[in-house]
Specification:
Length: 276
């Protein structure tokens, strides 16, 4: 192991946290973790009926346990970016950067803020030790290049999640509906469909109604229609808002994979001198 490989080990440790979290998610999301039940209103042999399909979760996510695991993952990923900037700077000018504490990987969603002096230092002081080609890469990756979509940039998501974990609260998870689909494919003779309301995907609580079918059937509750349904539930982050309701594993993999690609490119600028 080279002394300037800290950024690589940070990513390695992040993957360990993510693997552990994924393994726990697989165990948690086993069959039986939720039930879907049908309710009819009113009861009896009324001509008009309302069918409600309702979800009930049999277990809740271990909020603080998973929240701290998510935080450990996010902080290691964020730290990998800062470490690689220091590694580049120190490897090229060890005398200047041996005790430096001002290098880091900047992340901004505003171009003026990116170039503005910070803490009475010159603009871009934190990346002053990296070569022009590396600076161009860092600048080109800034979320502000995405304009109105900058809030969904993986670096900005990482920035936001890191700040939430450090300064506000651990990341909370909850049940989310990834897919809710129910289509009436056939209505049998004598029946009439008045309305079909299907809940949109997103965060969901136990006991929520997934779909509601209002129909008339002179024969009472006999099967009078055929339906195609697709329900898929997962665990999601509560914030940032841009990823709220999205599968937790997808969000974390998206951010981590993006950062791993950045670190891999910038690692090529680290000057490693053999001790032998």
């Amino acid at each position: 192991m080279h002394p300037l490989d800290g950024h690589l080990w940070k990513l390695h440790r992040a993957k360990q946290h993510l693997d552990s979290l994924y393994n726990e998610l697989v165990v948690f999301l086993q069959p039986g973790c939720y039930q879907i039940v049908d309710e009819f209103d009113p009861e009896g042999q009324a001509i008009r009926q309302v069918l409600r399909r309702r979800i009930t979760f049999t277990r809740e996510p271990p909020l603080f346990h998973w929240g701290t695991m998510i935080g450990d993952y996010i902080q290691n990923v964020r730290s990998a970016l800062d470490h690689v900037i220091f590694a580049i700077s120190y490897s090229r000018n060890p005398d200047e950067f041996v005790d430096d504490r001002t290098t880091f990987f900047p992340v901004f969603n505003d171009p003026d803020a990116f170039r503005r002096p910070r803490r009475k230092r010159p603009p871009l002081h934190e990346i002053r030790g990296i070569p022009p080609d590396a600076k161009a890469i860092v600048e080109g990756l800034q979320p502000y290049h995405r304009g109105k979509e900058s809030a969904g940039d993986p670096l900005w998501l990482l920035h936001e999640m890191s700040n939430i974990d450090k300064h506000r609260n651990i990341h909370l998870t909850a049940w989310a509906a990834h897919t809710i689909a129910l289509d009436i494919t056939q209505i049998l003779p004598g029946a009439r469909l008045h309305s079909l309301n299907v809940r949109p995907a997103g965060m969901i609580e136990s006991g929520a109604i997934l779909a509601e079918v209002d129909y008339s059937c002179p024969g009472g509750l006999a099967p009078i229609m055929q339906m195609e349904k697709n329900f898929l539930f997962t665990i999601a982050l509560d914030e940032p808002a841009e990823v709220r309701g999205q599968p937790l594993n997808s969000v974390l993999s998206y951010i981590g994979g993006y950062v791993e690609g950045i670190v891999d490119v910038l690692d090529g600028f680290v000057v490693r001198v053999s001790n032998s």
